[in-house]
Write a structure and sequence with these properties.
About 75% of the residues lie in helices and about 5% in strands. With about 350 residues, the chain is mainly α. Pfam families: 7tm_1 (PF00001).
């Protein structure tokens, strides 16, 4: 709901002498992130994860692990789209901040801004939750190999994922769409369209509902997800060691290695979970520092960029891990090279 109001910008506050970054340095770092690093990683990550999605779809979705990997690729793509929110640059680079075009163009920019924010929120939220399902699926497959096919069915996996996407999607829609609104002001004589907090957001903040939902999601996608995946990986690792030693005793092969007691699927999924623990553990630490330790706004913005960079590395790493373990992909590359060589001959 748009409204026209005339306001005056407040005077600039005086900077404290003990700044970690000057405003100019922080702005330069943020520009490098948003105009060079994030777009580059976004192109590579989106291309890689879309490639993974195509390979997984062609291989068929009869295995639960393939369905989970496909959903993880979808989550990665949504995050990489959201982190490259070009309308945010348009919005924040104006002086004063806001969209300063015609009414129709401002509204189009606002819609694009909401879509990118929604994609970012979905990617950040689903990114930690899907590895929990991957870890649980591997625990059942390793500890109950005879019953795993009856417990883990593609239909149940799809239903579980749809429930996860539905719940997180509703929260992200509430957080990114319903809690903001577009308003038009005249600031220092310039007509500017701003994205401001909605009346519903203010009511929910006053009632405590907004904070409650935010805390629940932060715990679920933060310390709880990290703890569950870490414990799950430790349990799987101990079980693999036990199985390997047991086989060694039964076959009397002293040179039996751990690799013979673990399937390629388990190795791939464990690597993805380990990468998640490293990347999201670091990102969680940065988020904690931003929330509890830092006061300077310019430093907070730089740390948020580093946080997003770590998540981008995780998205790109998921693709690299899957491709490195996929023989079909490398066979296709070899065939393509041979066809290209024979064509030019």
């Amino acid at each position: 709901m748009a409204s026209n109001t005339t306001v005056k910008m407040p005077g600039t506050t005086k900077m404290t002498p003990d700044l970690v970054f000057s405003e100019e340095m922080a702005f330069a770092i943020i520009i490098i992130f948003h105009r060079a690093i994030f777009p580059s990683m976004g192109v590579l990550g989106i291309a890689g994860n879309v490639t993974s999605m195509v390979i997984l779809t062609r291989r068929g979705l009869r295995k639960c692990s393939n369905i989970l990997l496909l959903s993880l690729s979808v989550s990665n793509v949504t995050f990489l789209i959201g982190v490259n929110n070009f309308t945010q640059h348009i919005y924040s680079n104006n002086d004063p901040e806001g969209f300063q075009f015609s009414k129709s163009i401002n509204y189009v920019c606002y819609i694009c801004h909401l879509i990118c924010n929604l994609a970012y929120a979905l990617g950040v939220t689903m990114g930690p939750l899907i590895p929990i399902l991957i870890t649980g699926e591997r625990i059942i497959a390793i500890f109950c190999p005879l019953k795993a096919n009856f417990i883990l069915t593609p239909r149940r996996t799809v239903i579980t994922l749809l429930c996860f996407f539905l719940v997180t999607g509703l929260y992200c829609f509430y957080h990114e769409i319903l809690c903001v609104q577009l308003k038009t002001y005249v600031i220092n004589g310039v007509t500017t369209t701003l994205i401001v907090d909605s009346d519903m957001w203010r009511n929910h903040v006053n009632s405590g509902l907004y904070q409650l939902l935010e805390h629940i999601l932060n715990y679920l996608t933060g310390i709880i997800a990290l703890g569950m995946i870490t414990v799950g990986c430790v349990i799987i690792g101990l079980k693999i060691i036990y199985i390997t030693k047991r086989r060694q005793q039964l076959t009397s092969r002293v040179n039996a290695s751990t690799k013979r007691g673990i399937t390629k699927t388990t190795k791939t999924l464990l690597k993805i979970c380990f990468l998640y623990i490293v990347c999201y553990g670091s990102a969680f630490g940065l988020a904690y520092i931003v929330e509890n330790k830092l006061q300077q706004w310019s430093v907070i913005r730089v740390v948020v960029c580093v946080h997003n960079l770590i998540v981008c590395i995780n998205c790109l790493g998921d693709f690299l891990i899957y491709v490195a373990s996929n023989a079909t992909f490398w066979t296709s590359i070899t065939v393509f090279r041979r066809m290209k060589t024979s064509f030019w001959k």
